[in-house]
From TrEMBL, chain C:
Name of the molecule in the record: NOT2/NOT3/NOT5 C-terminal domain-containing protein
Family to which this protein belongs: Belongs to the CNOT2/3/5 family.
Taxonomic source organism: Brachionus calyciflorus
Domain of life: Eukaryota
Amino acid sequence: PLGKTVLTKEQNQHLAILEGAYKKLPHPSDTERSRNYLPRIAVNTPAHYPQVPPVGHDSLDFLCKLNCDTLFFMFYYMEGTKAQFLAAQALKKLSWRFHTRYMMWFQRYEEPKVITDEYEMGTYVYFDYSKWAQNRKDGFTFEYKYLE
Amino acid sequence: FEDPEGLKEKSEQLLHEWIQHHSSLPLKENTKAFQQFVLQMNSQGLFKTDDMITRFFRICTENCVETCYILITKNQRQACYQRLDAFVKLIILLVKHSGDQTNHVNKINLFNKVLGLIAGCLLYDQESKLGQFEPMPFHRLFFMLLFEANLPENNLEPIIYHVLQAFVNVYHIIRPTKAPGFAYSWLELVSHRVFLSKMLQVSQPTPDQSFKSWNMYATILTQLIKFLSPFLRNIELTQSVMLLYKGTLRLFLVLLHDFPEFLCNSHYQLCDAIPSNCIQLRNLVLSAFPRSMKLPDPLTPNLKVDMIADIDANPPKIAYPYTYNIPSKLKNDLDSYIKTRAPISFLSDLRSYLQTSPEIGSRYNIQLMNALVMYVGTYGIQALRSKSLTPTHTNLTHAVHSTYIDIFQTLVADLDSEGRYLFINAIANQLRYPNSHTHYFGCVLLNLFSEANTEAIQEQITRVLLERLIVNRPHPWGLLVTFIELIKNPQFKFWNHQFVHCAPEIEKMFLSLGKNCV
Amino acid sequence: LGTDLTTLGLNLNSNENLYHSFLSPFSDSPCRLQDIDFPVPTEYIIN
């Protein structure tokens, strides 16, 4: 109802400068901590590829359905983020235990032969991030002081 | 100007060394390297005077920015980040270790200084580089300074409130009307999840500081709206403006969803700035209600607003000191008229206070109109309450309240259609969630409708309500309740008015609205 | 100036706060899990 107002000279200038800024929009990564191992690189994927994460992707239930390698990938490549934190929670729920000295995830292969207040010893499966593979380790001593 | 001989080279050499050797070290080594580095800076005389350290930071900022310009042309954005993040790390460590652990003044001063320097470089760059201006280096510096200041390892928590104040100051210095070339980055920075949570989560050390940070954030939002306002007002929506406006809508939606109490607290200041044709954004602000409140369904048959629990008990908080928008002469005349009904000429002079330009479409001082309505209404509510009266159609004309309603009725009769539109809008801006203002101003609006001496006034009141109802959601609870009362209550004879039947599509729309509502 | 606000990429019916994963005012998709910095235990900072 108030109709238009004539833009002042300054407002027209603002509009012109804004047009220039419109060509240099911020990237999402400008406002994110540097991700050395998985930097955000915008790639135009075909439109039929899912463009947004699946619904519920940020719930623990969803992560528990993923296979362990995916969780290990999230844990080691998305350091310091919510992804790493949730992946760790899901791994624990899937009865993996993080060894803070070897910085690897271990899972009992069978009931340990020895269990004391300080440690347990037995056969374990562990994920070796340097070889990116799961291995079996007999006679391993898991000292509880290294249990996260 | 006049940097001492060799200072530039020394500073750039030191910065280069820091970036190359120290910044990527893990925290423990980093701190040791930092101590070594500070000794080096000291030996170069950089800490000798406040002026020297200021020059050092300015030279480093300019150097980082210049290098980024080159890297951006080579599309090496990540390399920019490394450089800028390293410089931020140095700043944060210098802030962290300046002054002693208890005395925070040095830290806060140094932090303000650095932010101000970066802002100065930004404004200078925008002016000197014009179309070549690159926002990203400054965007990254501001973001990483906020991010690092919030990292527990930098233990700046004790001064975090002052850090936030420093950011609010600097965002004011580089607000879009001052740095339109930085507007997108600015909106991204002020709506960043880390900044939002720090400014709006009620987590400041004291409740008073929480409200202060709320008011600071409301001021930031007002600066954004003021920049957009001329373009939105003219609906001159170039793609660049539309993108900024959509970004604004997203931010306000997040605020409505996560921090409705903040919007309740700041609605007055925001509505003062939102252009009157920006109806949806204004509705978004007015739709906020406290999460602890359960809103009765406006369509409840025979909903009696005054029966709603404590609707009159608690006047909503208006954080903004709106009375300062009323010139003291007008305020004195207003107070004396309210008290003594004198001078009698006061009512006829009112319009002259409000009308400030002959320019059609900009004739009136909108902020003064809003403040006047809020001022008179607030005291009108108190007058009714002093006699334990609730706002009803009859009570509004009760002796204890008659001066207030006189002022409103004079305004609605005296003003031209532009002025009346703004006046009715000022009242409609108070129709929000169930509170004493919603109740009172809803009654005032219906009273003005029923007492109107021309149908034009009734039509205009209807238009103002209608234009707020026919835009996309959300719609404020108070608006719905008032409109339903208008079309339902036979006392207002709404359906008898000619304008309801002025065109088939209008009649159809009212009937469909009426059917939905009734 | 009216817009259907449900088309701006924000899950307005979410019970969670939106700002935790608010990526940008210029983006109609929220943060991905790996975009959100999180105070993980120091033992997890392996790289």
